[in-house]
């Protein structure tokens, strides 16, 4: 995952390639998330970028996020802060699904995640990434929506 601040220079285009996507900078601030087991995501904070895959191209405006996968490039409007909170050392969950929450925990704490049912509720929390996994799980369990069990490097999730 990387955050970019790039000044537009028509004579020297700046391009980021991640997986099957190509992001061409048109003068901007943006975040690219391209983990090997997840679809590549580009979140635009300021300016504009052009996202391409194969013959398909989309231009993002601030507050939009693209996901590149089958069948192509999907675009949605988002709150950008959760996508760039990692730069400030934070987990920032705003109406986040349990899949979104556990994906970040899996990457940050290097744990496997096993679901034994999934809560349908969404999570709102701001937590420092310097907190221990136990403390983060305690905060999330405080919602009353989910219970966690840690078994070695496995995080077990239950509603």
What do you see in this structure?
By secondary structure, the protein is an alpha+beta fold. It contains three helices and twelve strands; from the N terminus they run βββββββαβαββαββ. The strands form three sheets. Strands 1, 2, 3, 4, 5, 6 and 7 form a seven-stranded antiparallel sheet that branches. It is elongated and about 55 Å long.
- Our estimate of the beta-strand percent is over 45%
Let me know the average pLDDT.
Answer: 92
Would you list the SSEs in sequence order as H and E? EEEEEEEHEHEEHEE
Helical proportion, percent range: 10-25%
What is the number of helices?
A: 3
Measured distance between first and last alpha carbons? 30 Å
How many β-strands, per DSSP? 12
Unreliable residue stretches = none
Major sheet description? 7 strands, antiparallel
Q: Measured on Cα atoms, how large is the radius of gyration?
A: 17 Å
* Structural class computed from helices and strand pairing: alpha+beta
Choose one word for the global shape: elongated
